[in-house]
Amino acid sequence: MIGRKLKVARSAAGLSLRALSDAIDGRVSAQAIGKYERDEDMPSSGVLLVIADALDVSVDYLLSAEELVLEGVDFRKKAVATVREEAQLEARTIHLLERYLSLEDMLGLKSVDWEQPRSAPHPVADVRDAEDAARSVRDDWGLGNDPIPKLAELLEERGIKVLSLELDDIDGLAAKVRRRDRSSARVIVIKQSSWSERKRFNLAHELGHMVLAPDPGVDEEKAAHRFAGAFLMPADVLRSEVGAHRSSISIGEFAALKERFGVSIQALAYRCKDLGIINQTAFAKLFRIFAERGWRTFPFAEPGTIEPAAEEPRRFERLCYRALAENVIGEARAAELLNISVRELDARLDQKMV
Fold first, then answer.
1. Which of 54, 60, 141, 315 is most exposed, with minimal Cβ within 10 Å?
2. How many other CB atoms sit within 10 Å of the CB of residue 67?
3. Any residues with CB less than 8 A from the CB of 66 and at least 6 apart, and which?
């Protein structure tokens, strides 16, 4: 039956039952589509074709038995985000993941499983325990203390599916993905248009949620923030750069450190405070300056902002090109998977401007 798949695809497209009926020129009513979604009825082959076309999915997708369920969903959002926006993002995430996993199947690839660090989950009795957790994860994954140049790519190598979407009042989500007859997967969704320094911190923050096990009473968000800072800016490396104690640090010095670590100036200031490099008075003075210069509000345009494209997941795109080159899929299917036109696909393959 197609009920759940149809509802996910409709929600991902942001269409109501009535809007979908209108999109197919009233071929069937909203009430009929509701019955399809509740598996009380099955559309004819002709109706199935026009619905699939309206939702920009294949008939095979709607008929596929593969079902994914998101569990333990954690949103990073503004207070104005609505329940409808959350539901639509969950549907879009499931929709894209199903395409991602089906592509791996078509290529005969074993889906990369979540490579949980050996030392995880890390007990956290105090927020400062997140420092030890970050060091352990780096050790488990053999990262040393060097800055991480491409965090989204690293996480995908470790089995976390990273999706980049255009979002409004939600900056992303993280969740466990339950799959029938398979081990659970992990997914993180990031906001495509965000500066890359913000993407990197959000990715590290969500990794923190995956590996930390806070005791009751410990603020999980603060622990994940502390983990992200320690993971991206190891204490020993930062202290060697700026010293163990400073009465002040200039904006210019922070801008140079930003280039080295790939994080925001504000994240660096927080990290210096957490490590006791600067005191609360110096920290408060810095944040007054940040607020005066407008860096605390959208579009968060600090000096040296890192373009959004610098921290984008690319594995799914590479798999599409591989499947096309190996004649597993055709150009039309590759363009559909990448959500671009065949003309743009040809331009990408030839490295030409559209």
1. 60
2. 13
3. 98, 101, 102, 179, 180
How many whole angstroms separate alpha carbon 132 and alpha carbon 117? 13
Q: Would you give the DSSP letter of residue 206?
A: H
CATH fold group of domain 1-65: 434 Repressor (Amino-terminal Domain) (1.10.260)
- Using alpha carbons, select from 200, 195, 196, 190 the residue that is nearest to residue 170: 190
Contacts 24+ apart (CB under 8 A), 246-255: 246/272, 246/277, 246/278, 246/282, 247/278, 247/282, 248/278, 248/282, 248/285, 249/277, 249/278, 249/282, 249/286, 251/289, 251/303, 255/302, 255/303, 255/304
Q: Which two tokens stand for residue 124?
A: 């956290």
Closest CA to 155 of 115, 199, 95: 115
The span from the CA of 217 to the CA of 127, in Å, is 10
* C-alpha to C-alpha distances, 227 to 6, 122, 219, 276, nearest whole angstrom: 39, 11, 12, 16
Residue 200: per-residue pLDDT: 97
Per-residue pLDDT reduced to its tens digit, 146-193:
999 999 999 999 989 999 998 888 888 899 888 776 777 899 999 999
Give the closest residue to 57 by CA, choosing from 111, 5, 3: 5
Whose CA is closest to 153, among 329, 310, 325? 310
pLDDT higher than 70, residue 112: no
C-alpha 23/C-alpha 30 separation (Å) is 11
Alpha helices in the chain (DSSP H): 3-12, 17-23, 30-37, 45-54, 59-63, 83-106, 129-140, 151-157, 196-211, 220-232, 235-242, 251-261, 265-274, 280-292, 315-325, 331-338, 342-350
Question: What does residue 179 show for φ and ψ, rounded to 5 degrees?
Answer: -120, 140
Output Rg (C-alpha) for the chain, integer angstroms.
23
Spatial CA neighbour of 209 closest among 256, 176, 178, 251: 176
What is the pTM assigned to this prediction? Answer: 0.85
Tokens of residue 228, six digits:
């992200």
Phi, psi of 220 (to 5 degrees): -65, -40
Structural domain spans, the chain: 1-65, 122-309, 314-350
